[in-house]
Amino acid sequence: QTVVTQEPSFSVSPGGTVTLTCGLSSGSVSTSHYASWYQQTPGQAPRALIYKTNTRSSGVPDRFSGSILGNKAALTITGAQADDESDYHCLLYVGSGIWVFGGGTKLTVL
Amino acid sequence: QVQLQQSGPGLVKPSQTLSLTCAISGDSVSSNSAAWNWIRQSPSRGLEWLGRAYYRSKWNYDYVASVRSRITIIPDTPNNQISLQLNSVTPEDTAVYYCAKDVAGTGYFDYWGQGTLVTVSS
Fold this sequence. Notes:
The complex is a heterodimer.
Chain A: E1 4-6, E2 9-12, E3 17-24, E4 36-40, E5 47-51, E6 55-56, E7 64-69, E8 72-78, E9 87-95, E10 98-101, E11 105-109
Parallel strand pairs in A: 2-11
Antiparallel strand pairs in A: 1-3, 3-8, 4-5, 4-9, 5-6, 7-8, 9-10, 9-11
Chain B: E1 3-7, E2 11-12, E3 18-25, E4 34-42, E5 46-55, E6 59-63, E7 71-76, E8 81-86, E9 95-103, E10 109-112, E11 116-120
Parallel strand pairs in B: 2-11
Antiparallel strand pairs in B: 1-3, 3-8, 4-5, 4-9, 5-6, 7-8, 9-10, 9-11
């Protein structure tokens, strides 16, 4: 069974830069995994930030960017703001029509 | 503007069938450029993609292995909605369930339902 890994938690200072990663229990993440990233605040449905590795969803500020870093997908937030404090989830395509979410990263801005 | 409106019971007894419906407005369930997904979220399991249905000349379905023997996603073209049935539920199926639209099967879930908390308990 494929497991998608994310850091359980991360913290960043206001105005700082943070990179969250999304890996696979076996193997490297590539553009073929169509990585997407979702932001979620308590009680709300997730909101799409990035899809197909590095394409921003409509209305998402350009301080959010996606990439492949080494063998993982990555979400970088540049100039973090207080309202970026959220849970961040990645989603990967693992083949045969199947998608898998990572466990999520709780980001604290302080 | 696409809107997804979920409905269904919030309490299901163990061994029974969980049934939820997602009414779609602003798009068509039989669109050739969308896929309709069901996802759930619980504190213990996080977000879990359950499966999807999409129409490309015929209906296609994909389900995650962990629930494949118990899940059915049912498109309802006349009513423009997509439904989820999960059989033989246990307390481990307690979660918030979401429907979500995926753009052309790219993993870009651009619209989500509001979520439905389903509790499995006697």
